[in-house]
Structure formats: C-alpha cells, structure tokens
Design a protein that fits this description.
The chain is an alpha+beta fold. 27% of the residues lie in helices and 28% in strands. The termini are close together.
C-alpha cells in the first residue's frame, strides 16, 4: 500500500510532510502504508497555475519513503517543534501545524521509486 501526502514546500531547502492533528502524534505513528510518497509542489509555480489545472512534473518533487522511516522522521520533527520554546512561554499547539523537514533528511528517498519494486 502507498499513502500520498502532497503540499507546498515552504522553501527549496524544506520538504513538506503533512499537517499535525495534535499532541497524540508525539508518540503515535502517523503513517500505516508500506510507503509514503511526499509530493512537494513548487509554491510559486503552483500558485500561478492554481485555477488553470495545469502543472508539469518538473514543478513537483517526490520522496518515496518506507513507513518506518516516514514515521520516525515525522515524529522527530513534531517533537522538535513541540519542544521549541515559545517567546511567550508555554507549549506550542500542534493541531493544524504544518510539519516540514530539511531536504537533507529525506534526500536518499528523492525519486526513489525503485524502493517499492525492491520490496515486492
């Protein structure tokens, strides 16, 4: 099984994973499929084509990540944000928070479509 998560990456150095539901995601797995494909859309180009229904593959980045790695990377990112202090004190609210990681974190999985073939 494959799960697909698509969204705008905040920058070329970041990969958008998905939205966080809340504090339960500090400890629970987010993804259940064998692989998670994170599809990042170039924000500038995606916004320009928003109503035309056109977007070529050159404006999309694909990260094909095994479930265990996707859950570990996601949980680490959520925990990192949760632990980051607020200027006003207290804890961050995780509901609806966009979760991003550096491209380096998932670089080995960029366009790694063969991983799905190898697992069969």
């Amino acid at each position: 099984m494959v799960q697909v998560k698509a969204g705008y990456s905040p920058s070329d150095e970041q990969v958008y994973l998905t939205q966080c539901k809340g504090e339960e995601e500090l400890t629970e797995d987010k993804f259940a499929s064998d692989f998670v494909v994170f599809v990042n859309i170039d924000r500038k180009v995606g916004s320009a084509h928003e109503h035309e229904g056109k977007l070529s593959f050159e404006h999309l980045s694909f990260f094909v990540v095994p479930r265990e790695v996707a859950n570990r990377v996601y949980r680490e990112a959520v925990n990192r944000e949760y632990e980051r202090p607020l200027r006003t004190g207290g804890r961050r609210k995780l509901g609806n928070m966009a979760v991003n990681v550096s491209v380096e974190t998932l670089l080995e999985y960029k366009d790694a479509w063969t991983l799905m073939q190898e697992s069969q």
